[in-house]
Design goal:
By secondary structure, this protein is an alpha/beta fold. Helices cover about 40% and strands about 25% of the residues. The strands form two sheets. The chain has a five-stranded mixed sheet. Strand 3 and strand 4 form a beta hairpin. Helix 1 packs antiparallel against helix 2. It is elongated and about 70 Å long.
Length: about 160
């Protein structure tokens, strides 16, 4: 759902990312600089593995800051009030039943950037998320996944 290279986020996730970025730019950078300074104090930099590791950590940290800034620059907040009721869309909470084993699952459909399977948040680009998009309560869907064909019935949408 990243039309035009946009990234769709909830307001909450947008605020989390902004806070995380601010913390990385202030506290995080100071911590890395302190590690580099400490390693530099250990003597000859040409043979100082601790210094090399701290510099590499700094490079990776700056890359993470850059990636977060890029993500925020492309972010668009999702307004669920614009979506039709009763149809699965991004930010829908869905309750589905696996017809093979009768297990019931609750998922929140989110953008790939917010997906967290352990928290019950699945991406709309995942096989299950994509297969549920646009469906209604009572529909039965067959979803092709790496584990094979999955048969689900949609029980609730909120």
């Amino acid at each position: 759902m990243s039309e035009g290279n946009f990234v769709y986020l909830t307001k909450e996730r947008l605020f989390e990312l902004e806070k995380e970025l601010q913390e990385m730019k202030t506290k995080g950078r100071k911590e890395i600089a302190a590690k580099i300074g400490e390693a530099r104090a250990h003597g000859d930099l040409s043979e100082n593995a601790e210094y090399d590791a701290a510099k590499e950590e700094q490079g990776l940290f700056e890359l993470k800051i850059s990636q977060t800034e890029s993500l925020l620059a492309r972010a668009r907040v999702i307004d669920v009030s614009q979506f039709e009721k009763g149809i699965i869309h991004i930010l829908s909470n869905v309750k589905i039943k696996n017809l093979a084993n009768e297990k019931v699952y609750d998922y929140l459909l989110v953008s790939p950037e917010e997906a967290d399977f352990q928290a019950g948040k699945i991406s709309i680009t995942s096989p299950v998320g994509n297969g549920l998009m646009g469906k209604k309560v009572g529909e039965k869907v067959k979803i092709k996944a790496p584990a094979g064909i999955l048969d689900y019935e949609i029980l609730e949408i909120s």
